[in-house]
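Section 4.2 – Deliverable D4.2 (structural model, holo form)

The reporting period included a commitment to supply a predicted holo structure for the target in complex with KG4. Inputs used:
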Amino acid sequence: MIVLGIETSCDETAAAIVEDGNKVLSSVVASQVKLHHAYGGVVPELASRKHMEVIDHVVEEAMHEAGVHGRNLDAIAVTRGPGLIGALLVGFNFAKGMAYAMGVPCVGINHLEAHLNAIFLEADPPPFPFVGLLVSGGHTGIYHVTSHTDMALLGQTRDDAAGEAFDKVAKMLNLGYPGGVILSEMSRQGDPAKIRFPRPFLDKEGFDFSFSGLKTAVRRHIETHPDTYKSQLSDIAAGFQEAVTDVLCHKIITAAKQRHCSHLVLAGGVAANQRLRERVREEAQKSGFKACLPSPVYCGDNAAMIAASGYHHLMAGESLGFMDDVYSRVRYGS
Ligand code: KG4
Ligand code: ZN
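Output (structure tokens):
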């Protein structure tokens, strides 16, 4: 089954062609980072307009790269939520219109589920059940995943998402947007042990997270070291990254133990973080688990993961109705 995936939930316009839910024939991502850079974050109205401007080119490019023509396409999968409503609507209406014109089914996909399915785009995917740590700009949660479409939420952030904390700390340090990549690059030159930040919720039972206190601790450090903090940027970045990594790593390993899962999976933009990947691989190995990490291109927002999720919903006979709409927020997982 050849599925066209479309993703426009935030600041990436993406389209991909995926065969049978795991073979990527093309994956095109048009990032809007430059557009939002000057504002230090995503401006929803600008994001929607940019999606409108480029979506047909991005879809055309994905079809062209895959060598797929309209008549070979079996279905379309599109992100339905959560995300920015105006941004979601662009991809959603484009997909519905295209599917109607071509006479193929169209299925609406939950963005969080799709992130967790990104691992199936890789060779040697994990068997079910596994525990998945989803760490992105909008969400941080741990899931017990029993199938491509069934995921139980074990715990989530009570305030900021991990990616959001990276973005806010980078902004505080005047390093620009998006913060994750900038801070992780900067950490390479820093000493993670020099400035110790708190590890929120590390010792608490359960799988909830909280990152706003950690963000405040960084702010306090800046305020109490007004003359010196600028010369410590890489140590601050490394110390902050280490604190986030410690918490994430500890919780996912504990979840695997508690749920008796042999495999654990990372997903979402923050899963591209090299330090987190290293630590999770090491800790998993020590505890006898296998860590499965998607390639960095499938960690951040992309449409291949939407098509991968879509395949399983289509196989189950799902498709969107004419009146179905997008949604901005949802608690995903039973
Ligand atoms: O999954 P994603 O592309 O979009 C959402 O669904 O939110 O995640 C974007 C988030 C941003 O907060 C970004 O700063 C963070 O992922 N991120 C990283 C890295 N690359 C992206 N955070 C830490 N280290 C990275 N290397
Ligand atoms: Zn995402």
